[in-house]
Specification:
The protein is an alpha/beta fold and 267 residues long. It has twelve helices and nine strands. Strand 6, helix 8 and strand 7 form a beta-alpha-beta unit. Helix 2 runs parallel beside helix 4, helix 10 runs parallel beside helix 12 and helix 11 packs antiparallel against helix 12.
Length: 267
């Protein structure tokens, strides 16, 4: 399994395409099918969301996906890990990143979560509801590092240079740059200063910087791929699942088409 560092070092494209979808929506049986369609479309890294009842950083599309996942079957971290392992077997060269809030990790047990996550193919975790300088964060960081999993920190347009300098000590894999204020979701326009800001974060952290939150179209992905090390798209992918979740064959075809179109525009 390639580490995040190796994937960025050995990339064939200037910018990697990181795709997000929520596990268990509409079922855990469907998730590997969606992953297969996305992988064959050209995704370089898979970001998988762990359903949570109070996803404060996520917009309505992803919030609804979590609700469907939690309503359709009983939540189980073991089910999450087993499904992730099944997805990992589809292509062991593509790293998996989890997006999880802190509560499910702590409820399961941090040591067990990170050790089993690594065995399931996970190489990075984004935890949006925990500040990097909080006591819980330090514990999460140390346990993740022991299990060769990167904790991927968020940087926003409001993050100061001083704070970025402090964050880099506890960062590996890549930096997740939040392109706009607010929660996840589609945006019609992106800030014109985005390229300059990402260059500043790259220079300060010496890590790849991947842009997410609000990127929804192939045209936006193409523009951002000119200066970001990676482009993260979630809500647009999740909207395809929402619109087609009652017909899995259609859903697979639409996911593959969209991912392929974005990947081609990013060339």
């Amino acid at each position: 399994m390639s580490s995040l560092e190796e994937v960025f070092q050995n990339r064939k494209h200037k910018s990697l395409f990181i795709t997000y979808f929520s596990l268990g929506d509409p079922s855990y049986e469907a998730s590997p099918r969606f992953a297969k369609a996305i992988l064959s479309g050209g995704a370089d890294i898979l970001e998988l969301g762990i359903p949570f009842s109070d996803p404060i950083a996520d917009g309505p599309v992803i919030q609804k996906s979590y609700k469907r996942a939690l309503d359709n079957s009983a939540f189980s971290m073991e089910q999450i890990l087993n499904t992730t392992q099944e997805i990992h077997k589809l292509n062991t060269e593509v790293p998996i990143v989890y997006l999880s809030y802190l509560n499910p990790i702590m409820q399961f047990g941090m040591e067990e979560f990170f050790s089993k996550a690594y065995l399931s193919g996970v190489r990075g975790v984004v935890v949006p509801d925990i500040p990097f300088d909080a006591e819980d964060y330090l514990q999460v960081f140390e346990i993740a590092k022991k299990n060769s999993i990167s904790i991927i920190n968020l940087v926003t347009p409001a993050t100061t240079k001083k704070r970025i300098h402090a964050i880099k000590k506890f960062s590996s894999g890549f930096i997740y740059y939040v392109t706009s204020y607010g929660v996840t979701g589609e945006r019609k326009e992106l800030d014109d200063s985005l390229g300059k800001r990402i260059a500043e974060v790259q220079a300060e952290t010496k890590l790849p910087v991947c842009a997410g939150f609000g990127i929804s179209t192939p045209e936006q992905a193409e523009k951002i791929s000119q200066f970001a090390d990676g482009v993260i798209i979630g809500s647009s992918i999740q909207k395809i699942i929402e619109a087609n979740h009652t017909n899995l064959d259609n859903c697979e075809a639409e996911l593959n088409r969209f991912v392929k179109e974005v990947r081609e525009r990013m060339e």
